[in-house]
Amino acid sequence: MTSNRTGSRGAAARRLSALGLALLGMIAVSPAAGAAPGPVAERVHQSAPPAKTRMASGETPSVAAETEKVRAAFVLGLVPTDEQLRLNDKDFVILLWRRATGAEVRGSAELAFASSDAACTEWIRTGIHQANTRDQVNQLRDAEAARVARELKEQALIVLGIVPESELVITNNRDFIYEITRRATGPKVKAAALEAFGQPDPAQKEFIANGLRTAHSRDQQDKIDAEAAGEAAKKARLEAEAARARAVSVVRVLPTPDIVTLPDDDILRVIADRATPGSELEKDAVKALRSRDRADWRRFIDTGVFAAYKRDNAIVLQKKYEADRRIVEEIKTRADNSGLQPRLARAAAAALAGGVDEVQGFLGIGQYEVLTQSLSRNALNGNIAGHYLRDVNGALVVKPGSPEPAPDEGLDATWRIGPGLANAECRSFESATKPNYYLARYHDGQKIRVGVRPTDGTNDFFWNATWCVDTKLPSAGVTIRGGADFLRRETDGTAGVGTVYYWWVTDPNPDSTEITLHWLNRYLPDYDPYADLWVEPVGAEQVDGRVRFRDFQERDDEGVPHPAFRLYWSAATGVHRLNVGRGTTCPAPEILDAYLKLGGHKSVLGPPSSDDACTAERTGRYAHFGSAGSIYSTDRTGAHAVSGAIRAKWASLGSEKSTLGYPTSDEFDIPGGRRNTFERGRIDFDAATGVATAYPTTS
């Protein structure tokens, strides 16, 4: 194994050297090679520094590394300057889009740009390379869908008399509608655009495709009515010209006076000539033109042109949907086969179970939201669950979290899993907190180690940061191999490489507090994160000052879950269980319910210091709290608390085995002190003397 080399941060020529000239042989250069790079226009949006930007999940979103931008630019024969490499990912996509000539590279860039920042990042990393491959074999997938989205925006602008600027028509729907609110002059268009601006994406698509044209026609009608009041002939002429203007916008013809004053049959010829050969639009225009009935011409201009164009788009989008489903199926298959991306596989399955919107949503942004996972030690490695592979202040360790973790602590055990940098069939693990830092092997001069290191763009680093699943066992997880070495936990708790070692691949941002560790290791000895759990949490762990608690449920023999117990933790008392209900081993009234009625951990009792357990004769149950409180429960006495000096006195007599028996009341005030009653007597506490005295019942 060769050690990683430090990456160059100098001029573009040195980056080219760092990546290696062999890279040029791996990437097909498009016909755009040799053209001068164009300037990048200022954009309305400003990207926040990636290290300080957080997604809803709490993870730091990944951004494309400089080396990834260089590789993407090489596809188009461009050696990017330092200034270009400093562009945010969206602007870098636009830079390459301007350079590209291949239909799929341009189309996929437009779809990514109109989707999300994450989609732009993934396009730089992998999308441009995949699209360029499709261009080389003339396989269209994204180009037609991008054309439809672009044409709808061009039509909308032409209808409003706005010049369709190339970069405006590839923006996302929300930004495009914002521009409509700024540039449109008609009050009804402005009002409809303002309403659509705050709507979900499907409603915004409908506004661009149909709603804008409808609102504009109403603005036109208002103007016509005002200009031609009382002049029927003029009004009819203006209405006809407005309809022709809307019709020719479908084929992106500017509605100049020369155009809108043409006879209806000439308008049909304009549309037929500009329509895509063989399209529904061309067929319907020719069919209407062949009719001798002028009413057929007018119907086509008023409504038919839009219906035909809509059918054309539906055909294109159906083909795109079918292609997208195949892509999602491939993603699911790769995620399943990798053994390292169960979240991605589940999300792909959910998208496939849905429809067009779910599939598009998954490919647009959903797939990028489920790339993170965590790696957990499992039962084959010492039967200790809840220990995760973590980057803790630069040290790579396998350990649980803190007993009282900070809100984002689980991020140190979260890894963004993507295609292997050196082999796309394997995987690379990127830190969730440090973009472009990867789990990588390196040689420290004495032995091979593993750490979290920044990419330097060399083939050495790519190879050292690529990991393959060697073995998958349904009940044991996966082994992860880099080169000839397996990722493993060393005896001192650090991560290293060596012999075979199994990992669970679990959800990101793991919670491994003392309560979670207790649950996993006491109640789930054969814990499998991919199987239905017989004991599982109900809701998140609750925090109240220095006390933490969480509710759990258990499944019965039919697999139906039922409330089971609550676990409490404090630094002084540790983790202890209080049961829900009577139980079966030693049935008695619920101790947890009695405890909560007294105020729970905020009461004088404090948090539990023992589990809810059976008494010696198994006719009752008890739990201890803090250092001087208990609750005892039987059917004949109910559940009652004893504490302080009264409890100490009762314990000295033998507790429930004493002549007094079980408590029949909680502690209550009496003149000069406090009292508990018992089955066969009472104990009084004298506040003046601090002495507790037992008074057995005499018979």
From TrEMBL:
The keyword Nuclease does not apply. InterPro entries: AbfB_ABD (IPR007934), AbfB_ABD_sf (IPR036195), LGFP (IPR013207). Keywords: Signal. Residues 1-35 form the signal peptide. Residues 383-474 form the Alpha-L-arabinofuranosidase B arabinose-binding domain. It holds the Pfam family LGFP. SUPFAM superfamilies: AbfB domain. This is Alpha-L-arabinofuranosidase B arabinose-binding domain-containing protein. The lineage of its organism: Bacteria, Bacillati, Actinomycetota, Actinomycetes, Pseudonocardiales.
